[in-house]
């Protein structure tokens, strides 16, 4: 196939994937909407919450790593399903959403690959390409772990983010495939940008998990104070378990980001621009992102900062990452912007 | 919660939050504790992140001085205020330096004591089981017929699972994951190394740029640079004595398609000598392929056009001849520049205007529509003035001081002329003529020397290694205890998670399962 054919295929497949992600998102939104209507009896929820968060003494133990935490979570949701009519439809919506996400991912992957074939290089030489690649990374990180860590509860957030990024990319950032400007001719481009994209995917998952953590933690506090909780919130894993998921994803992303931003980036900048660090806006914001996540890890190790504060920092880190990617390219000019929007 | 956490606060003053009542030493100690506490580290990290931001939004003198002066003109009130705050050079401002120096001190103050604590912890044996194992997560119990050598079996099983095991009376204690704290310490110490490397480079290094017209040469000495930024303690005498000549420069642009005009390839052919008596060598300099010479690196940063012009004065004498580098103003290389002929007589002459590599005339006047030289033209205006005595003051070669000059006029209009290569125009009033002989290209080279980069790089790589240990190693303890209860022999197993991952997963259950006598597997009682 010729470069034009590949470009053509890519231009067809990426918008299609976007639409399917949007459908998946609607399915997950329906799942949530169905759950909001179903209010679970106080006593049951309270039992759930107590089991999930344990008493004071065993906090660390009951809601535990991967398998154990998902055990608690699925046990919770299983009992909820059995007890509450209406949740079968939620389950179905959730499954449809996940299936659509798999389908969209396959097309998305094909779109990114054909884009690379069309351009004859790695598909992240400008902002359009970086958007489709980074959102692919988000979807990939989610789909790789969705079964293992029971991440279905992230479906709405993930499909929302991926569909939004892809939609924005196709509508506002589209650039036809073409070769690179000379400064981007370097295998460090491959290393630097793929590290950034994968850790960006993980930052996104960690950010979404932290948002849901805050929501669920609030609901749990309300329940302990005698309130109720809707079925959609109840179906989420315990706040502790989500906090653990966020930590694990971010702990995976942080060393990778460190490598991408503080090793591969500077080495490449040294070759291309003759200095390894020049306080270019993109460099500054990458460093800020790094420092914020370092603060997150410190916060988790500091009494009084664990939990809510740490989650807030993780969300700030995610915003900083997004701003670095979108805002800096569009608002501030610097060395990095010459790759073309 | 866990002891790992306690170590953080213990040496760094979890108990020292109240200011002491007496004594200078007490105060100093209290301040040191505050500075090296985890909360301070957090605050300083946030300050560092916040402090770095303005430098990316406000123009910075070291990056783009022209933008800074534009900003100062545009904001006459705000500008000087920003300037006082150091906002035009954030990363060298006193307040930014204060943040990272404090962080650096805090870092040292934090990890050095932890090293001692860790060295003790590594040698320590796993501690005795707590009295009430059933309060611990994952607690399991089962009965066995008799104690026998059960504890020996437990020891073997735990060792097999790579725990460090210590036998106590009626119990074994086991611990693993010591590498986590080692990783954490390695990370923080390597960060210090990396920062030292960075500091070294910025103190002892230098960076200079020079614009060389193709065919010309450059010898590495301070006087030859257009722009030179030494590190704070750089000594200008020891520049390596290399010299080079730019033999040729080749550039390719995208000819068609949506990215028409985008650069595709730059190549400069150099010949160079490492020392004045060294043999001549050649090198093809490209973006991403710097030339490394004796600790310095030479980079290709940019390129442009230098029209070759001959100016004759009113007396018919050649007053200027040669290439004059023009600076590109847009992506199609409309290049602005000046030609000065201060020695022209009876009047001195000066010209300014544009070199257009692919000139077309549209409603805005002549512009370049492509970066390559498809239809080169020189569009200029001229000035004359009384000869001035040499002042010896340095003058920019890219700007014409028009304060003592008058613009030529022709038929009542300001003079403007457009030349193709080879063409000549005569100036009004027999003031002379100017000939556009042709044009050369120039390249902008950067020479830099940054010592300490290997230290910085090695430091960061070690830091990542440590980080992985610190984030992925899971420190935890397991205890197995046998005791007699109502005449039965009861085994209790429990664990303690000492990392932030929360939880031990299925490990305790798995250990229990492998310790249970076969037929007995079902009699386990699990405590919720
Ligand atoms: C340049 C600044 C710093 C950066 C980028 C940084 C980064 C990090 C990172 C990424 C971690 C996570 C590793 C883990 O969870 O074990 C960490 C942990 C830690 N940091 Fe820092 N750090 C910095 C400065 C400091 C300072 C000044 C202190 C002392 C107050 C400190 C004390 C600690 C401690 C005690 C831990 C271990 C937490 C635990 O055991 O979970 N760090 N640091």
Q: Are there runs of chain A of 5+ residues with pLDDT below 50, and where?
A: 54-83, 335-341
Spans where pLDDT lies below 50 across 5 or more residues of chain B: 1-16, 520-528
How many DSSP E strands of chain A?
Answer: 2
Measured between the Cα atoms of the first and last residue of chain A, the distance is: 28 Å
- When the domains of chain A are counted, the total is 2
Radius of gyration of chain A: 21 Å
GO molecular function (chain A): heme binding
InterPro entries (chain A): Cyt_c_assembly, Cyt_c_biogenesis_CcsA, Cyt_c_biogenesis_CcsA/CcmC
Transmembrane segments (chain A): 6-26, 96-118, 130-146, 153-175, 187-215, 249-269, 284-303, 310-332
Keywords (chain A): Cytochrome c-type biogenesis, Membrane, Transmembrane, Transmembrane helix
Features:
heterodimer; A: 341 residues; mainly alpha; 2 domains; two-stranded antiparallel ribbon; 12 helices; flat; disordered C terminus; B: 528 residues; alpha+beta; TATA-Binding Protein; 4 domains; seven-stranded antiparallel sheet; six-stranded antiparallel sheet; 11 helices; 27 strands; disordered N terminus; binds protoporphyrin IX containing FE; transmembrane helix (chain A); membrane (chain A)
């Amino acid at each position: 196939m010729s470069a034009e054919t590949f470009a053509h295929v890519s231009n067809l497949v990426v918008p299609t994937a976007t639409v399917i992600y949007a459908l998946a998102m609607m399915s997950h939104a329906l799942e949530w909407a169905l759950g909001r209507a179903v209010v679970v009896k106080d006593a049951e929820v309270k039992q759930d919450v107590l089991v999930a968060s344990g008493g004071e003494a065993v906090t660390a133990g009951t809601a535990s790593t991967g398998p154990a935490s998902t055990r608690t979570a699925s046990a919770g949701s299983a009992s909820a399903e059995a007890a509450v009519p209406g949740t079968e439809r939620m389950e179905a919506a959730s499954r449809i959403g996940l299936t659509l996400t798999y389908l969209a991912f396959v097309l998305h992957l094909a779109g990114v690959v054909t884009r690379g074939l069309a351009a004859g290089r790695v598909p992240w030489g400008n902002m359009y390409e970086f958007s489709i690649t980074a959102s692919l990374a988000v979807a990939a990180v989610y789909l790789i772990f969705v079964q293992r860590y029971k991440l279905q509860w992230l479906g709405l957030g993930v499909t929302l983010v991926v569909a939004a990024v892809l939609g924005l990319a196709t509508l506002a950032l589209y650039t036809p495939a073409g070769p690179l400007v000379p400064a981007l001719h370097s295998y460090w481009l491959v290393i630097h940008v793929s590290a950034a994209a994968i850790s960006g995917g993980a930052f996104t998952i960690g950010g979404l998990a932290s948002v849901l953590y805050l929501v669920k933690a609030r609901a749990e506090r309300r329940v302990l104070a005698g309130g109720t909780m809707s079925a959609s919130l109840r179906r989420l894993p315990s706040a502790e378990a989500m906090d653990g998921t966020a930590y694990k994803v971010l702990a995976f992303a942080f060393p990778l980001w460190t490598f991408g931003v503080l090793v591969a980036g500077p080495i490449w900048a040294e070759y291309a621009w003759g200095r390894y660090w020049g306080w270019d806006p993109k460099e500054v914001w990458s460093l800020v992102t790094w420092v914020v996540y370092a603060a997150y890890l410190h916060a988790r190790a500091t009494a009084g900062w664990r939990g809510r504060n740490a989650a807030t920092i993780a969300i700030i880190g995610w915003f900083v990452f997004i701003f670095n990617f979108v805002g800096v390219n569009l608002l501030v000019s610097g060395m990095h912007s010459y790759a073309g929007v | 919660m866990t002891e790992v956490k306690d170590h953080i606060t213990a040496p760094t003053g979890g108990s020292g939050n109240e200011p002491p009542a007496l004594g200078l030493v007490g105060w100093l100690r209290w301040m040191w504790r505050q500075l090296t506490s985890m909360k301070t580290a957090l605050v300083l990290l946030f300050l560092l992140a916040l402090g770095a931001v303005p430098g990316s939004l406000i123009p910075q003198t070291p990056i783009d001085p022209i933008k800074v002066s534009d900003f100062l003109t545009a904001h006459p009130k705000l500008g000087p205020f920003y300037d006082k705050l150091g906002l035009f050079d954030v990363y060298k401002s006193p307040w930014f330096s204060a943040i990272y120096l404090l962080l650096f001190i805090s870092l040292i103050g934090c990890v050095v004591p932890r090293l001692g604590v860790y060295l003790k912890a590594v040698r320590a044996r796993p501690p005795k089981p707590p009295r009430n194992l059933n309060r611990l997560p994952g607690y399991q119990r089962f009965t066995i017929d008799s104690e026998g050598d059960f504890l020996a079996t437990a020891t073997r099983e735990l060792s097999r699972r790579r725990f460090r095991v210590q036998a106590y009376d009626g119990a074994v204690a086991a611990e693993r994951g010591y590498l986590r704290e080692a990783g954490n310490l390695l990370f923080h110490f390597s960060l210090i190394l990396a920062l030292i490397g960075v500091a070294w480079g910025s103190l002892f290094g230098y960076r200079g740029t020079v614009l060389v017209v193709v065919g010309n040469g450059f010898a590495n000495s301070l006087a030859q640079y257009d722009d030179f930024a030494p590190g704070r303690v750089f000594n200008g005498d020891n520049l390596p004595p290399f010299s080079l000549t730019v033999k040729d420069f080749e550039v390719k642009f995208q000819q068609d398609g949506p990215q028409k005009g985008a650069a595709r390839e730059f190549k400069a052919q150099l010949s160079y000598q490492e020392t004045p008596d060294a043999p001549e060598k050649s090198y093809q300099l490209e973006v991403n392929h710097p030339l490394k010479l004796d600790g310095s690196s030479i980079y290709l940063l940019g390129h442009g056009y230098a029209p070759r012009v001959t100016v004759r004065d009113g007396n018919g004498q050649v007053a200027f001849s040669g290439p004059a580098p023009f600076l590109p103003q847009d992506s199609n290389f409309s290049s602005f520049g000046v030609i000065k002929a201060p020695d022209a007589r009876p009047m001195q002459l000066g010209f300014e205007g544009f070199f257009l590599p692919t000139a077309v005339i549209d409603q805005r006047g002549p512009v370049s529509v492509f970066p390559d030289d498809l239809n080169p033209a020189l569009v200029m205006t001229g000035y004359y003035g009384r000869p001035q005595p040499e002042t010896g003051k340095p003058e920019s070669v890219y700007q014409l001081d028009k304060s003592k000059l008058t613009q030529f006029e022709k038929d009542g209009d300001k003079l403007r002329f457009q030349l193709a290569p080879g063409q000549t125009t005569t100036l009004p009033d027999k003031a002379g003529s100017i000939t556009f002989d042709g044009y050369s290209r120039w390249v902008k080279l950067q020479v830099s020397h940054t010592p300490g980069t290997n230290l910085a790089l090695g430091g960061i790589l070690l830091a990542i290694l440590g980080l992985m240990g610190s984030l992925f190693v899971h420190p935890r303890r397991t205890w197995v205890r046998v005791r007699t209860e109502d005449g039965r022999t009861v085994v209790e197993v429990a664990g303690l998670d000492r990392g932030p991952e929360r939880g031990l997963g299925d490990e305790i259950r798995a250990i229990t399962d492998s310790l249970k006598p076969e037929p007995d597997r079902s009699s386990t009682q699990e405590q919720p």
